[in-house]
Amino acid sequence: MEIMKLLPAGKDYLWGGTRLRDEFGKKIDMTPLAETWECSVHPDGPSVVENGKYSGRTLAEVLREHPEYLGTKVEDKKELPILMKLIDAKKDLSVQVHPNDAYAREHEGQNGKSEMWYVIDADENASIIYGFIHPVTEELLRKAVEQGNLDKHLQKVKVHKGDIYYVPAGMVHGIGAGTLVAEIQENSNVTYRVYDYDRIDTNGKKRELHFDKAVKVMNMGVAPDVKQRHRFVHYYPGCSRETLCRCKYFETEKIEVTKGVSFVVKEESFQIILCIEGEGQVETVDENTRPVRFSKGDCLFLSAGTGKCYLLGEAEILKVRC
Ligand code: ZN
To answer: How far is CA 81 from CA 39, 101, 106, 122, 190, in A?
Structure first.
């Protein structure tokens, strides 16, 4: 079985910073470097395998050839259903919304996009936009966008390092300036921009808005409760573990490793490991599988059925599976 270390694709969106290069070791020559698509089979930003027998090939190719690496839960789809990114928001992202699966498959030929953010770091006054503070209508929104005062309808929430936000398809949202997040989402790249702060890009043009589509897929009601829930951290010798999010599409766990942690990658699903702090190595009991070292910013894909794994080191990781 393969433990694949992945090389991400980068995105130079105008709101990005340089922290992914400066602090997360990304060797991508883009300024700004807004996003790295760490584990992706999406044609808009495919990850490439860095090590082992698939070195130099895209993860998408490898998984097409070996759908069994995905696991029995997703094998029949023949495609990785998840996309994982690092996002460095030096400036505000646009106010946006994503369609659900039904709409996106019919109109865009892609999946819908529900997403989860884990806040890796946040400036003192950093905030996000999370839904509406009161019910709105299409007319109200159209006027607000024209007049540039959409803000008064949006819920702004102060964010802190370690926060978790689940953003279901249909919820209007925006990551605010001074926030660095890991995003786990459906494998999709459909975004409808509602408002972009009238910014112009490097070509001197405003980025396109998609108001008409956005209002078709948008939840116009009041946002759900945004308070951070009680968190249950389980402590073991050598690590602590915490389930951050469990939804229809993925399950995310945060593990703080002080010495080591063992876990099993079963036949039913692959697992993805994203290191957000520290360093270490993953090894298996199978002597044909070579140990793989990782450090801050690295992302590993563990094929379904890899079996018992040991992760040794001192690190904070996010571990995602189906
Ligand atoms: Zn989004």
So the answer is: 11, 12, 17, 28, 14
CA distance 187 to 111: 7
- pTM exceeding 0.85: yes
Q: What secondary structure letter does DSSP report for 177?
A: T
Distance 259 CA to ligand 1 centre (A): 35
pLDDT of 276-314, one tens digit each? Answer: 999 999 999 988 889 999 999 999 999 999 999 999 999
Q: Tell me what pLDDT residue 202 has.
A: 81
Contact 6, 49 (CB under 8 A): yes
Half-sphere exposure of 252 (CA within 13 A, CB side): 23
Ligand 1 centre distance from Cα of residue 283 (Å): 34
Is 193 designated active site? Answer: yes
Q: What is the average pLDDT across 263-286?
A: 97
Helix (H, G, I), strand (E, B) or coil at 307: strand
Query: How far, in Å, CA of 3 to CA of 173, rounded?
Result: 35
Instruction: Looking at the chain, list the stretches that DSSP marks H as alpha helix, in order from N- to C-terminal side.
Output: 19-22, 59-65, 101-107, 138-147, 211-217
The tens digit of pLDDT for each residue in 26-45 reads: 999 999 999 999 999 999 99
> Would you say residue 196 has pLDDT above 80?
yes
Choose, from 19, 21, 193, 321, the residue flagged as catalytic: 193
Ligand 1 geometric centre to CA of 236 (Å)? 35
